[in-house]
Design a protein that fits this description.
about 50% helix, about 220 residues, alpha+beta
Length: about 220
């Protein structure tokens, strides 16, 4: 497990090895630690906009002794796509995504919502908003994703309208019916883990999901 101070040291070490400024986005438990929502995480999840930037960070990690491994990400609803490049050293693991996080796209609206930016030498880390952390967690089956989402909902003042609008956008720019995934994810959170999700939010997402499915069936 990696704590925030250890993660900061790792980012500094990577940044020292980079020859130019590189920006990336932190998601998952790595991002939750910046908000004080989690004390430690199993892996460090980073998203890059440019393949060259990701390759530069991969090279820096390899210089530091990390080795590439096959991705272990499990996908619940569809065949595995947009999985990260995974690098490990001892018990520390980096998951490096490129623009897409399994079924989600790193959207302009996600970038616009960012309020936390940290600079570690040449590595610039941007932390996704709590709403977008929930979005990026809802279509994977990694251990702890639902518990993490529960903690985000408990500790952050969630703007549910942001999540709803983002799910609709994700359905427009990806081949997946994202609001369907979102509804299943949030419904299980509320029913199984007693998450504080307004009933009207679930009803609205369910209606959007039903409309999407109906339109999809009509096209066949």
């Amino acid at each position: 497990m990696i704590e925030l101070n250890q993660q900061n040291d790792l980012f500094k070490n990577v940044g020292e090895k980079l020859k130019k400024k590189i920006e990336c986005y932190v998601i998952g438990g790595s991002a939750m630690m910046y908000y004080g929502m989690k004390g430690s995480t199993k892996d460090i999840d980073l998203v890059f906009e440019h393949e060259n930037d990701r390759n530069e960070v991969i090279n820096s990690l390899k210089i530091l002794g990390y080795e590439e491994r096959k991705s272990k990400v499990k996908v619940l609803y569809f065949k595995k796509k947009n999985t990260p490049i995974l690098l490990e050293r001892e018990e520390v693991r980096f998951d490096l995504f490129l623009n897409k996080i399994i079924s989600t796209v790193l959207s302009d609206s996600m970038k616009d919502r960012i309020e936390m930016i940290y600079e570690y030498n040449n590595l610039i880390i941007k932390v996704l908003a709590p709403e977008d952390l929930i979005i990026t967690k809802c279509a994977t089956e990694r251990a702890g994703d639902r518990k993490d989402a529960l903690e985000i909902i408990r500790l952050a003042k969630i703007n549910w309208e942001i999540i709803i609008k983002e799910s609709i956008y994700q359905a427009e720019v990806t081949p997946y019916l994202f609001p369907v995934f979102l509804f299943d994810f949030l419904y299980e959170l509320k029913e199984d883990l007693k998450a504080d999700i307004p009933k009207e939010v679930l009803n609205k997402i369910r209606k959007i999901s039903e409309d999407l499915l109906e339109r999809k069936l009509k096209k066949k």
